[in-house]
Amino acid sequence: MEQKKEDKALTDVQLTRDTRNIPIGKVGVKDVSYPIVVMDKNKKFQNTIARINMYVDLPHHFKGTHMSRFVEILNKYRENIALDKLEVILSTMKEKLGASNAHLEMEFPYFVEKKAPVSKAKSLMEYTCTFSASLSDQFDFVLGIKVPVTSLCPCSKELSSYGAHNQRSIMTVQIRYSEFIWIEDLIDIIEECGSSPVYSLLKREDEKFVTERAYENPRFVEDMVREATVRLLSMQNITWFSVEAENFESIHKHSAYAAIERKKG
Ligand SMILES: Nc1nc2c(ncn2[C@@H]2O[C@H](COP(=O)(O)OP(=O)(O)OP(=O)(O)O)[C@@H](O)[C@H]2O)c(=O)[nH]1
């Protein structure tokens, strides 16, 4: 009679030998939803929920990694998963999984209180942020933010008798830095690079203001990434950055896109 599965020894299949001689760069868990804490310039801390990816490398001779250990590690640090814990989490991942490299990626909504430009009506704006950290011999950290802006086409303004096509654009900035930078400050810098910032609450007087401001301040995607580059190059504490602009064109079915990446020094 065949032995029932529950009577069998709990074989650790992951530890068995693989003979294909192929190491794996990144293996682990993806899209784990988990509470985290982010430093907030005005309120000290902000609680939010991140989608977390955790990966390690796997030597060629092992069949699999130990998926449960990633979640055990998150659970160990569950009270305070924050920027200042990333390195110790990565170090624990390397240790518990016997790996030489560990990667931790988090994408989360971050809320900033914003005032409408004329009425000063307050509202909360959501920005999507990313923390991408890795540890091999050295710790590496990249902060990313997606900033929505309005862009108004300089070409359309020049050619048209009435108005100019304009749209919501997303500027994606990623930075490496030598001294801490607030998410709020980076958002302010990037919002200056489009034709106008975007708000979640506008009264009529604000709407007139932002419409006219965008018209007075036309920008191509090229202008947006160049404006960002001028500002990011002038910040001494930023050691590397990449900036992208995507305009979800209102007169085309496709987007306009531009990107610049710079390593300083
Ligand atoms: N490696 C690997 N594991 C997977 C995959 N999909 C699901 N799992 C499951 O992840 C679970 C956890 O595996 P382990 O972390 O090795 O669990 P464990 O052996 O009880 O834990 P340890 O004693 O810490 O190794 C297992 O039930 C696997 O079947 C996959 O694609 N790869």
Automatic annotation (TrEMBL):
E.C. numbers: 3.5.4.16
InterPro entries cross-referenced by the UniProt entry: GTP_cyclohydrolase_FolE2, GTP_cyclohydrolase_FolE2/MptA
Reaction(s) catalysed (UniProt annotation): GTP + H2O = 7,8-dihydroneopterin 3'-triphosphate + formate + H(+)
Database matches in Gene3D superfamilies: Urate Oxidase
Record-marked site positions (May be catalytically important): 153
Record's keyword annotation contains Hydrolase: yes
Record's keyword annotation contains 4Fe-4S: no
Pathway participation: Cofactor biosynthesis; 7,8-dihydroneopterin triphosphate biosynthesis; 7,8-dihydroneopterin triphosphate from GTP: step 1/1
Keywords assigned by UniProt, alphabetized: Hydrolase
Superkingdom, taxonomy of origin: Bacteria
Top-rank EC class of the record's enzyme: hydrolase
Family membership: Belongs to the GTP cyclohydrolase IV family.
Function recorded in the entry: Converts GTP to 7,8-dihydroneopterin triphosphate.
UniProt name for this protein: GTP cyclohydrolase FolE2
Natural source organism: Geomonas propionica
Lineage of producing organism: Bacteria, Pseudomonadati, Thermodesulfobacteriota, Desulfuromonadia, Geobacterales
Gene (name only): folE2
